[in-house]
Write a structure and sequence with these properties.
52% of the residues lie in helices and 10% in strands. By secondary structure, it is mostly helical. It folds into two domains: 2-154, NAD(P)-binding Rossmann-like Domain (Rossmann fold, 3-Layer(aba) Sandwich), CATH 3.40.50; 160-272, N-(1-d-carboxylethyl)-l-norvaline Dehydrogenase, domain 2. Strands 3-4-5 form a three-stranded parallel sheet. It has a three-stranded mixed sheet with strand order 6-7-8, sandwiched between helices. A two-stranded parallel sheet has the order 1-2. Helix 4 links the parallel strand 3 and strand 4 (79-82). The model has no long low-confidence stretch (mean pLDDT 97).
């Protein structure tokens, strides 16, 4: 269950619904009995008689392992709702596999932290069997601020979750390099905050995405050669203070590749040209 699953349990209990729980670390499940949950030491006992089973685990392997252990006690026609961040292919395979066994598997990954799970806020994503999603929508909507349906394709929600997490990872790494560079330039966190208080580059995300995937980079707002020049300044400033940069050197190499291909006078977003 972890932090996310534990708070899902607490929120469900607040709605006066019965919850049977299991966790590989028994004490984590037992700790929730004070809120009204019934904890089991065997996952098969926990799922016995349940029409809906919610999973919040680590990865594909842990999901497959736990479901196999639970399978002997699953109620015929039971619905398995998996909130785990997994591979796209894993979600597709489990959807088909468990349907063949007489059960329903619905992947429902989330952009939610523990606080969101407790408060019923954030975002939950689904895709696949429309009739199943329609049946589950009222209950799932209570668990999140926004339930996003990405259509009939099993695995689409898993893919969206991975793409979103990739952005978060890159975004955080970019902030890390910005902090490192700022330190080498004798700028404080307060200096950065004062800039971002008045200038929020995040508001340009949608327009940047559109520009990067348009296929036309011939009317630059910032030429690739000039952005590469500035990137060189970043790297040089950091090197003078022996400051390690995580992603800017890789970006410089990518820019060099496109400049070598003859795109130096194009808009710098041309570095996305071979992605779409």
């Amino acid at each position: 269950m972890g932090l996310l699953g534990s708070n899902f349990v607490k929120a469900i209990l607040k709605r006066n619904e019965q919850v049977q729980i299991w966790n590989r670390t028994t004490s984590k499940a037992a700790a929730l009995e004070q809120f009204g949950a019934k904890a089991f030491t065997d996952v098969a006992d926990a799922v016995r008689g349940a029409e809906e089973i919610h999973l919040t685990l680590k990865d594909d392997n842990s999901v497959n392992e736990v479901l196999e252990l639970a399978s002997k006690a699953l109620l015929p026609g039971a619905i398995i709702i998996d909130h785990t961040t997994t591979s796209k292919q894993g979600a597709i395979e489990r959807t088909a596999k468990w349907r063949e066994k007489g059960f329903y598997y619905q992947h429902a990954p989330v952009f939610m932290g523990p606080g969101n799970a407790l408060e019923g806020t954030g975002f939950m994503m689904v895709s696949g069997d429309e009739d199943l999603i329609s049946k589950l929508q009222p209950g799932l909507s209570k668990m999140t601020g926004k339930l996003l349906n990405f259509g009939k394709e099993p695995g689409k929600a898993a893919a969206i979750k991975l793409a979103g997490n990739a952005f978060l990872v890159c975004f955080t790494a970019a902030i890390r390099d910005t902090l490192a560079l700022s330190k080498s330039l004798d700028l404080s966190v307060g200096d950065l905050s004062s800039l971002f208080d008045v200038w929020n580059p995040g508001t340009g995300l949608q327009s940047r995405l559109k520009r990067m995937t348009s296929g036309d980079y011939t009317e630059p707002s910032w030429e690739l050669s000039m952005s590469r020049k500035d990137t060189g300044l970043f790297i040089d400033a950091a090197s003078k203070t022996n400051t390690e940069l995580a992603i800017l050197p890789a970006i410089a190499a990518l820019m060099d590749k496109w400049i070598d291909r003859g795109y130096g006078h194009n808009d710098w977003t041309v570095i996305a040209k071979d992605t779409y």
